[in-house]
Structures are given as C-alpha cells and as structure tokens.
Amino acid sequence: MQALPLRLAPGDDLRAAIEAAVRVHGAGAAFVLQGIGSLSVARLRYAGRPLPTELAGDLEILTLAGTVSPDGAHLHMSVAGPDGAVLGGHVAPGCIVRTTAELLIALLAGHAFARELDLATGYPELAIRRL
C-alpha cells in the first residue's frame, strides 16, 4: 500500500479531483481513508433516494471515505453546517471545496477494482481482483 496525501484547493470538485489523482498515479485500486476540510456546495445522495440533494453554504467535512477504481469513486461523507447539524450520504459530483480539503488516499498495488452489475442488488458493485 502506498499512501497518497492530497490537498485540494478552493473551487475543486472533490469527487473529480480524487478520481483524477488516482488516475494520474496509475492505480487500479484505491481507498480514501479519511478527509477533512470545507465545502461551499455538497451534493449528497441519501439512502434509498434516487437523486442527490444539494446543500450550499459554509460546510465542514467531518468524515470522508470510500473506494476508487478506474470506473470511478464510491464515496460516503458527513458534513456539518454552521449550526452544527450533521448530514451524510453518498458523494455525488459537484461537491465544491470552499477553503481546503485534506485527504489521505491508499493506493493498493497488486489489486484491481471495478464496478460490475450485481444482480442481487441491481447496482454496479465493487469487484476486487488480485493481480
């Protein structure tokens, strides 16, 4: 496992930047171990909902974790607003960094991740292969 610390700048799209960083490093499998920072926009898809909800304003990233494959990322995040209320869910594209996002990504040599349709769930789920 190779550790990849990453800092994102204001205006970066959180999900797109994570996917790009893993792609640039040529990793076929990665985990986002943790992330903190702030967002001006968070787009979260809540459990059982088909579409993401957009939250705007001063938001703090409390937790961020997930998997990244060449097919894209599967990330979950919790954020707090100015009143401290916490919301969380699946990270959709369009989460915009406000001041910073500080992440730790683990690149997994010897593995390849893919998303494949799972007939039991009806969703593209993580497929793990050892190289």
From TrEMBL:
<dbReference type="GO" id="GO:0003677">
    <property type="term" value="F:DNA binding"/>
</dbReference>
<keyword id="KW-0238">DNA-binding</keyword>
<dbReference type="InterPro" id="IPR005175">
    <property type="entry name" value="PPC_dom"/>
</dbReference>
<dbReference type="Pfam" id="PF03479">
    <property type="entry name" value="PCC"/>
</dbReference>
<protein>
    <submittedName>
        <fullName>DNA-binding protein</fullName>
    </submittedName>
</protein>
<feature type="domain" description="PPC">
    <location>
        <begin position="1"/>
        <end position="129"/>
    </location>
</feature>
